[in-house]
Amino acid sequence: MPQQDRTDDRPGIVDVIHDVGDLAMSAGRTDLASRLAQTKSRMEDPSIRVIVVGEFKQGKSKLINALVNAPACPVDDDVATSVPTSVGYAEEPSAWVFELQEGEGEPQRREVPLADLADYVSERGNPGNERGILSAEVLLPREILKGGLRLVDSPGVGGLESSNSLATLAALSSAHAVLLVSDASQEYTEPEVQFLRHAMRISPNVAAVLAKIDLYPQWRRIEEIDREHLEGTADVPIFSVSSDLRLLAAELQDRALNDESGFPALVAHLRREVLGRAEVIHERSAVHDLTSVVDQLGMSLRAELSALLNPHDTPRMIAELEEAKAKADEFRGRSARWQVTLTDGIADLVADMEHDVRDRLRKVQREAERAIDEGDPGPIWDQIREWLDQRVTAAVTETFVWTDERSRWLSEEVAELFSRGEAEIPTVDVSDIRGVLDPVEEIAGLDAGQLSAGEKIYIGVRGSYGGVLMVGLATGLIGMALINPLSLIAGVLVGRRAYREDMSNRLSRRQQEAKVIVRRYIDEVTFQVGKQLKDRLRLVQRTARDHFGSMADELHRSLSEALLTAKKAATDFTASRDQRVVDLQDRLQALERLRRAIPALPQDETPPARALGAAPAGRS
User: Fold this and answer.
1) Whole-prediction pTM value?
2) Buried-exposed string 425-436: b where 16+ CB fall within 10 A, e elsewhere
3) Taking phi first (over 0 means left), then psi (-120 to 50 degrees means alpha), and beta for anything else, what does residue 285 get?
4) pLDDT at residue 425 in the model
5) Angle of CA points 427, 137, 141, to nearest 5°
6) Distance, CA of 176 to CA of 48 (rounded, Å)
7) Does pLDDT of 430 surpass 50?
8) Average pLDDT for residues 488-512, to the nearest whole number?
9) How far is CA 515 from the centre of its chain?
10) For domain 46-261, is the CATH number 3.40.50.10800?
11) Per-residue pLDDT, 319
12) 108-112 sheet: strands from edge to edge
């Protein structure tokens, strides 16, 4: 696809960033120059992550292959993806895996043959991810990926109720968009609808894909039912597609077949709603950075020029600068309102999060204990374990989504307090979900309570022995033998009662053991989830503190330099005064030229569709 938009639009703002950065360096403001260098890096190398999620064998991998028209992800009737795989752009095709080596804290990136990728990312080549691969990356020379688009093929989430769904939801925090893939064989299940609702609360852009429509003639009816399921869930677009038709159309260069595949509408969605919106967000961030840096660079120049041209007004200006510097100094201190709001907000959020996760998991525990008390947990323990895992995952997922929403709200509150809507909210990447539930041991097994025939006979004989002996001795007093009809009948009755009592005791022990297993599992989950969510909230706090703190430091330094130059100019009556005025005026004119070159802030409405090859901005 053409790169026209990139050529027409991008060089302008990138050149302005470069020129303003050079001015900042020449003025000795390395902090401002460093800020613009990061801005330029984001503009030149954006990364737009679109995560493709869904249950096992729904066609996620083939969907990505059809989008990029290449066998990027392994596909087979019996192969399921076990490792997250991202597909991005490079001049030469290659494949990489990220793995954690023993004794090393950071994951290592290792190149692998592209043809052997299935041995690392699929269930057949890497069952249960026994190789310990964290993720994989495929790089391909495709125009659709050239603008920064990265398609992430996630492992199947096993009914969207297992612990994998929590890992997938956590990854959505850093994604620009989500595609939920479900094939056209059946309507949405309740877990899929619930997953969509959770995803919409985390990710800014969610869409549904109905795959394999070429295999199911009644796919239009399924699409209609799915839309009914999503009524009242907000506006979630559904795209009905056939990956096989898309790949065949690409092979035959058949435009009509490509239209029939349904992919043009999905590609248009990616162009407009994903790449276009990400580009607007990134451009707004760049414009804000440029405006802020130009203002701060001009502050010192204007203060010095004013002191040279209007010496009679210098005392008033110095007093105003000193007052502004004092406020800026207070603004970057721990007692600043935004700092207090951030600290108190995180503390409140940690307390609320701990209460929320404990409350939800205690409800699960009570339900499990009631179910255990109602019958024998031994024969149905596998079903109880599966139910418990699903209920715990659902509870933890709801707490995770709620915590993510609250942390975003807190970041917005701090941004509002910091600069009344002018500051950029920092990126808080909490996509690393290792450890959320991984350290939790599996739910322990439980004796099914099945007794063999020998064990049953042994328990009966052991109980009947006492009855036979007791009655036999009593009847012996009247001259009867130890073993007689009365003693045998008593033995049978006592043995039967002993058997029942033994079975009742065994049931009580199994119920108590089952309850202990449930409580131990709930406690472990509560401990691990609480630790991980606390770590995430501390990351939110540190990121916001460092981001806004650095902006406060920049402003304080700019005011300090403006005050210093104004004071120096007020006492400087050298012969070079006129030349200094000319130099300052020239520099201010250069700044104004650069200010006029800064594009206007992009509007919030959805931008027009652009070529997928354009380089949209990353999420800020």
Assistant:
1) 0.67
2) bbebebebbeeb
3) alpha
4) 34
5) 100
6) 6
7) no
8) 69
9) 33
10) no
11) 79
12) 108-112, 94-99, 133-140, 85-89, 149-153, 48-53, 177-183, 206-211, 238-240
